[in-house]
Amino acid sequence: AQSVAQPEDQVNVAEGNPLTVKCTYSVSGNPYLFWYVQYPNRGLQFLLKYITGDNLVKGSYGFEAEFNKSQTSFHLKKPSALVSDSALYFCAVTPSGYALNFGKGTSLLVTP
Amino acid sequence: DTGVSQDPRHKITKRGQNVTFRCDPISEHNRLYWYRQTLGQGPEFLTYFQNEAQLEKSRLLSDRFSAERPKGSFSTLEIQRTEQGDSAMYLCASSAPGAGSPLHFGNGTRLTVT
Prior knowledge:
Radius of gyration of chain A: 13 Å
Shape of chain B: globular
Largest interface: A-B, 23 and 27 residues
Distance between the termini of chain A: 41 Å
Order of helices and strands of chain A: EEEEEEEEEEEE
Number of strands of chain B: 11
Shape of chain A: globular
Helix content of chain B: under 10%
Distance between the termini of chain B: 36 Å
Number of strands of chain A: 12
Order of helices and strands of chain B: EEEEEEEEEEE
Radius of gyration of chain B: 13 Å
Strand content of chain A: over 45%
Oligomer: heterodimer
Number of helices of chain B: 0
Number of helices of chain A: 0
Helix content of chain A: under 10%
Largest sheet of chain A: 6 strands, mixed
């Protein structure tokens, strides 16, 4: 069985401060890990993925994520948050590289 | 890249009626996925196709749900005898060949069952 946990329903951060959105996973074998963002009234947009290689992956809009195999985590990070980063963020995992299993999402609110 | 297109954007139906949704994937993508999303939840996997073959179907998927992709291009998702619990956003996504290719999502079809 595979699962994704996003322990925080909401993350609040001031503009300019670093942000972290947490994700832990459970999957058999080596995981493919993804982050997606959903803005209001818009579809899910791909941010970044980890398949293999360097544990720190960089993606769109200045986001990055760190894969930690021992902690089975894949936290999303950004050094300096923008108000426009406010959105719903989803972590997803698949053991096969195809159908994704999503977490319940974390709402990020960046205040000016 | 015209993106994944879903039709209709909104559908309101009465309980017991059948509904059908259409998804047009990105043209060079061979895999097509259907998900369902309710408020406050992440997308829930329903089924996916590689070309015209339906490779995986969620065990949570009721027999009232059926999906087709007859020519390996567009896909339809039909819900028979709709129930109020079927009210949700139905999302379609497609991906290029190769494991780990990102899914590209459409804007979804919002179903309301009254």
